[in-house]
Amino acid sequence: MNSKSPLWIRIAAPIGVLVAVAIAWHLAVDWFKLPPILLPKPVRVLQAIWTERVRLVQGSWVTLQASMLGLGASALIGSLVAILFSQSAWIRTALYPYVIFLQTVPIVAIAPLLIVWSGAEFRTVVLVSCIISIFPIISNVTSGLLSIDSNHLDLFRLQGASRWQTLLKLRIPSAMRALVQGLRISCGLAVIGAIVGELFVGNSGTSDGLGSLMNAMQANLRTAELIGAILACTLLGILLFLGVELLNRWALRRWTIDTGFESAA
Amino acid sequence: MPAVAIECEGLRVVFSQGGAKQTILDGLDLDVPLGQITTLLGPSGCGKSTLLRVIAGLTEPTSGTVRIEGQSVRASQHKLAFVFQESALLPWRSVWQNVRLPWELRRGVSGQGLESRIQEVLDLVGFKGTDWHKKPHQLSGGMKMRASIARALITQPDILLLDEPFAALDDMLRSKLNDLLLRIVAQTKTTMLFVTHNISEAIYLSHSIAVFRQGTIGEQIAVDLPFPRNPQVRSSPEFAAYYGRLSESLIRNSTV
């Protein structure tokens, strides 16, 4: 973006926008005489976040755990499925339609079913998070495993490398970047999945995630708290994304793309 | 007449693409003598690389035979090594690990003496110890190519197939690496089959040059310049004579 403007502007400008929106929001609530149930003033929201800080932090922690477990599970299972796919065109042809199904299934519709099967438990939340975030992993890693430099493949063939050696020493390392790319897309989905899961699981007692909290807040018309929880969800998504970005940087260094002869002599 | 390392007889390669058939090699005969550098010279897209791939067993010929030291391609694949147009190093492996790779992939070969063997080939191609553990992206094009040649030499091949390895390098680097190849042949007696479209490179390197013509070898010219060759030979009248003869042959044999 505007990479040429100095750092302080790049920090100050978005903050300025935030302040302006908050002021407009405050004035609008006054002007239209909106009841706090419909739209509380920004200050009210800040107050609510402060008074609910313990529950919000705890809830975020629970949701973060669910998202990370869901993302981890989809990375693991998705990669294994992709490895299976990479081994045979037959398997791909037979199973790919069902992977597409996984992508197109409205998760909101099957979440109740998952709760029937697996209970109103933390593990169901992880399951929903995993199902909703697995498709980008499968499709990215599969294409990463299959789009191998033809010279590299020839090199392996010339040495009489086995299928297993080719997988371990060529396909999997080549696909690492694709996996991280998939994770970048999936991490946001994993958070959404966890929150959707929690919304359906509802209040189960001690360890409520943000979704469960929001469920309760909405039921009690505690709009300011609800907005606070939404902000916490957003923060969570950003946090997870930053984590994946760090992973991405590391992966770039570790599995750097060979630039052929383009690098300076 | 020196012994023959590679014998191609009546090689035909026909690719069919969407019903249209394209003849790449059309009854090609070629003998590559043992322990020498033979160059395949021809314009881009004339089938030089395909011939190399057929000899390496990467492409099946439609008909015809290839014999390597009297054996079939399949039986003698371990005697060959291939140097690709691009260095084709694995980007996640260091130079050292890249050179090690062919050894790892060959089943049933003991790793005894491997470390010193890697050092030996890296020394041979002119790699300093400080660069052994660099990744390919930290290397210049010339160094990548050296690493690629080292990787090809690690299995002590009888025959080295080189597919325009220096095409993307500048002239200075190219002539340095040409000298490197000459040194390797002198030291190891490896047979080399070298593909290029660069006439002076072909003359400088070769014992003999096979000029492509429409999917076959148009003519084979022995280069009678003394070994060891040095850069001065490039400005000799004999060199110029070969150059003239080859460019004429190329033009005569070219269809375009």
Task: Give the helices and strands, then pairings.
The complex is a heterodimer of chains A (265) and B (256).
Chain A (H helix, E strand, L loop, with lengths): L6 H25 L10 H10 L1 H35 L1 H16 L2 H12 L3 H25 L3 H9 L4 H39 L8 H10 L3 H32 L11
Chain B lengths: L3 E14 L2 E14 L3 E5 L6 H9 L6 E6 L2 E2 L7 E4 L11 H11 L8 H11 L16 H13 L5 E5 L7 H18 L2 E6 L2 H7 L2 E6 L2 E7 L14 H17 L3
Parallel strand pairs in B: 3-8, 3-9, 6-7, 7-8
Antiparallel strand pairs in B: 1-2, 1-4, 4-5, 9-10
Helix pairs in contact in B: 2-4, 3-4, 6-7
Can you put this structure into words, describing what you see?
The complex is a heterodimer of chains A (265) and B (256). Chain A contains 10 helices and no strands. Chain A has 265 residues and is mainly alpha-helical. Chain A has a single domain, classed as MetI-like (MetI-like fold), CATH 1.10.3720.10. In chain A, helix 5 crosses helix 8. The two termini of chain A are 31 Å apart. The C terminus of chain A is likely disordered. Chain B is of the alpha/beta class and 256 residues long. In chain B, helix 3 crosses helix 4. The interface between A and B is medium-sized, with 28 and 37 residues.
